[in-house]
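Internal tracking record. Fields below are filled automatically when a chain is submitted to the structure queue. Please do not edit lines marked as system-generated. If the sequence contains nonstandard residues, flag them in the REMARKS field before resubmitting.
Queue: standard
Priority: normal
Entity type: single polypeptide chain
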Amino acid sequence: MLRAILGVIVGFFVALGVVEGGDAAAWWVFGADALFKDGVWDVTFIWIILSIVIYVIAGLFGGGVCEVVASKGTRAAIVLAGVVLVVGSLEAKNLKKNTDAQSATTRQVEVKRFESMQYARIPTLARFGNPIFAVIGILVGAEIIRRKGAAPVT
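SYSTEM-GENERATED OUTPUT FOLLOWS
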């Protein structure tokens, strides 16, 4: 039981780290001009696709680590998926409030990454879809570890 709880916690923070690292890498590789539309805080299609990929990869790593820490065969990955879905949905709802309040703000030429995180206007489907993509990644990542550990009986 304790290992399962620890697996959920560690898996959550691994997934969170991958999301933050992936966002930073996307910012570094593409920059604000490719990730935002000209002069506004609306994200581009490139950003939406990158975020889907980042969230799936984060889920794969988080689910895999959760399964390893919790010991194979437990249902810790399902709990982790539920936690990510709830936290991600609450974050998406909060993000909606923030972006509505900032909707009149125009984007400057020079933009810092943390400023972009505060003002970015992300479509509703992407905001609520990203946690779902992470959940899919978590369940697949845990299943990969579960099957990898199952050696054939000879």
